[in-house]
Amino acid sequence: xxxxxxxxxxxxxxxxxxxxxxxxxxxxxxxxxxxxxxxxxxxxxxxxxxxxxxxxxxxxxxxxxxxxxxxxxxxxxxxxxxxxxxxxxxxxxxxxxxxxxxxxxxxxxxxxxxxxxxxxxxxxxxxxxxxxxxxxxxxxxxxxxxxxxxxxxxxxxxxxxxxxxxxx
Length: 168
What we know:
This protein has helices spanning about 10-15, 20-30, 35-45, 60-75, 75-90, 95-110, 120-140, 145-160. With about 170 residues, the protein is mostly helical.
């Protein structure tokens, strides 16, 4: 009789380093292209609210900024924005170096927007402006460059949009 062999993945993967597990994952995806859909679905799944709570931990904020940049590079801009918004709200934890990293991460997200994302850009502009307003007293004039970059992109893409015809 054919007996199905069940593999305990936890035991199998436990001795592997993160790098080794990543290599196995890459090889599996190359061998089974339908696995890419699983990765895309995971990227688009909303991030847990726990990932946006830092409890006074600057390293957790930095980790969120790094993850947000990675999400942006994978074109999962909604999750990137959610993480960056939470990191921005943690203004009291941030030092000058982390503010620079945060602004660069926002600029990375903004750089990924395309012309068909006009409404999303306007929404994120409002989010970013609101974040800036909330932290202005604590952090001073921060997020100016990302706001300018996003405003310029919105203006450029607005000019490319078809004009609505109004009926009189």
